Amino acid sequence: MRGEVKRGERSQLIAMVGSVLIFALFLGVIFYSANYSAGSDFINALSYLSGSGSSAYTLGASPELNYLVVFANPSPLVVILSGLAFIATCLALITIQAFWVVRNFFAWSFDRILPSWFVKMDTRRNSPYLAVAVTWILGIIFAALFVYTVFFEYLVFSVINYFIAFGITSLAAVWFPYRRKDIFDVSPSVVQKKIGSVPIISALGVAGFLISAFLAYATLQPAVTPPPTGPPLVQALAYAFVPLTGIFALIVYAIAYVSRKREGIDMSLAFRELPPE
């Protein structure tokens, strides 16, 4: 995936930035409509009561907007369209996540963090069939955990790991033109653009880091993400899973690093240059 930096084409920039702006536009319309019709205080109160397990919350499901819209307009057509839209969203999300999970497995295997057999390709369809199979099996296991256990209740803050990852990547973008000037100088022209003497990629990195930090902070607010119910020790698990994810990743990398070193392979060399496309 890092190899794509070598080909920073204009279409990539339009696709990445344009898709985010379109998505933000749709979300803005949805949330503005909800807050305008019901009020942010009411929606936040519902979310907190539901997430905290309060007896004052008497609705039959969590206060998702596609569920609450039924009370605003109980028309059968609205009910059916709302349900179909939710199903379509879930199917689209599963499809997208399957692609990037398989791609991550492939990249980790390519970087020698995971066993090399993950990158075995189907000769007919030219796809990493073993990575796809592992993703499929893990998907079934996690679906069972979600339906039959409360495990995912304690992953409510795991989204913070996304913001941490984006924040670290943003800091790398800030430092990139100065730390790896040799790569920056041969990057596509769109990557080398500057505002005065400041590389645009560095300015965008600062903005990305600030946004990531704000989103991580906002996610910890009870009105946004109510903590799971239960004893204090159990509730603490919801917060503990955030650093534990990073610790687990470091342990996996350390094991891979030691194993590859015994094989005579220096894994650090793979991260000193951009990989092949």
Report on the structure:
This protein is mostly helical and 277 residues long. Among the domains are: 1-74; 79-149. 66% of the residues lie in helices and 1% in strands. The chain has ten helices and two strands; from the N terminus they run ααααααααββαα. The chain has helices at 10-38, 40-51, 65-72, 76-110, 129-148, 160-179, 181-184, 189-192, 200-219, 232-262; strands spanning 194-195, 198-199. A two-stranded antiparallel ribbon has the order 1-2. A hairpin with a 2-residue loop joins strand 1 and strand 2 (198-199). It is globular and about 60 Å long. The termini are close together.
Would you summarize the structure shown here?
With about 280 residues, this protein is mainly α. About 65% of the residues lie in helices and about 0% in strands. Helix 4 crosses helix 5.
Shape: globular
Describe the strand arrangement of the main beta sheet, using strand numbers.
1-2
Strand content: under 5%
Instruction: Work out the number of β strands.
Output: 2
Residues in helix, %: 55-70%
Instruction: Kindly report how far apart the N and C termini lie.
Output: 8 Å
Question: What about the largest sheet?
Answer: 2 strands, antiparallel
Count of alpha/pi helices = 10
Cα Rg: 22 Å
Poorly predicted segments: none
The sequence of SSEs as H and E is: HHHHHHHHEEHH
Mean pLDDT: 83
Structural class by secondary-structure content: mainly alpha
